[in-house]
């Protein structure tokens, strides 16, 4: 049975702990497979989110997932869509480029799974951008992130991979990596903006 796991909110201590690596032999085991499935279901049912780290569902393990929607957001921006953001920091698109009515078609997103991630390379260049967090509802802030990052990790099938990410996908990856260290975006944000009261 897969279920929606409640997302842990600040100031829960698990969000401040340093997460532990998953034993490579356990990745294909029932417990970790169920956790990954539950994380995917949880993120799918939380349309405001594009990434989720295991500590956010109460498990202090080095696992995070990123929705392929993050890639679509980068592609839309490349095609000339003007990127703004919602009250929760998630990108939104205001102005259409010629002939396009929507920045991208919403669909059943797949999720990239990163287990025991290790940063292999980062760009010197940083970009400033709005950011929010499912564990810190009702707030967003401006955070500087490296424009590009290369991460080595293990996928949900136990296979090692290296992935380079840039722009928004790189931002989400850095945000999720921070979760595994017990760091939240509010620790790094230059300005934190509270969304309207009772805004959820
Ligand atoms: Zn977060």
**Biggest β-sheet description:** 5 strands, antiparallel
CATH domain class name = Alpha Beta
The portion of residues assigned to helices is: 10-25%
CA-atom Rg in angstroms = 16 Å
- Count of separate DSSP helical elements: 4
What number is the mean pLDDT? Answer: 92
Number of domains: 1
Which secondary-structure class do the elements indicate?
Answer: alpha+beta
CATH architecture level-2 label: Alpha-Beta Complex
Strand order of the largest sheet: 1-2-5-8-9
Q: Bound small molecules, which ones?
A: zinc ion
Element string (H = helix, E = strand): HEEHEEEEEEEHHE
Number of strands: 10
- Low confidence ranges: none
Shape: globular
**How far apart are the first and last residues' alpha carbons, in Å?**
28 Å
Report on the structure:
Strands 1-2-5-8-9 form a five-stranded antiparallel β-sheet. A three-stranded antiparallel β-sheet has the order 6-7-10. The model has no long low-confidence stretch (mean pLDDT 92). It is globular, with a radius of gyration of 16 Å. It has helices spanning 30-44, 69-78, 167-180, 185-188, and strands at residues 51-53, 63-67, 83-85, 91-93, 111-122, 126-133, 136-146, 148-154, 160-166, 192-194. The longest helix has 15 residues, at 30-44. It has 200 residues and is of the alpha+beta class. The two termini are 28 Å apart. It has one domain (13-98, 110-194): Peptide deformylase (Peptide Deformylase).
């Amino acid at each position: 049975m897969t279920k929606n796991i409640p997302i842990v909110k600040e100031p829960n201590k698990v969000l401040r702990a340093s997460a532990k690596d998953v034993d490579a032999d356990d990745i294909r085991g029932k417990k970790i497979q169920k956790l990954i499935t539950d994380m995917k279901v949880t993120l799918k049912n939380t349309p405001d989110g594009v990434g989720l780290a295991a500590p956010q569902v109460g498990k202090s393990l080095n696992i995070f997932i990123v929705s392929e929607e993050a890639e679509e957001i980068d592609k839309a921006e490349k095609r000339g869509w003007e990127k703004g953001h919602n009250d929760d920091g998630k990108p939104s698109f205001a102005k259409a480029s010629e002939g396009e009515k929507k920045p991208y078609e919403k669909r059943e997103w797949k999720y990239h799974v990163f287990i025991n991630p290790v940063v292999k390379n980062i760009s010197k260049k940083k970009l400033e951008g709005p950011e929010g967090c499912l564990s810190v509802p009702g707030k967003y802030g401006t955070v500087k992130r490296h424009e590009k990052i290369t991460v080595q990790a293990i996928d949900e099938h136990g296979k090692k991979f290296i992935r380079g990410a840039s722009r928004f996908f790189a931002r989400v990856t850095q945000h999720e990596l921070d979760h595994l260290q017990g760091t939240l975006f509010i620790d790094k944000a230059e300005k934190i903006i509270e969304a309207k009261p009772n805004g959820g």
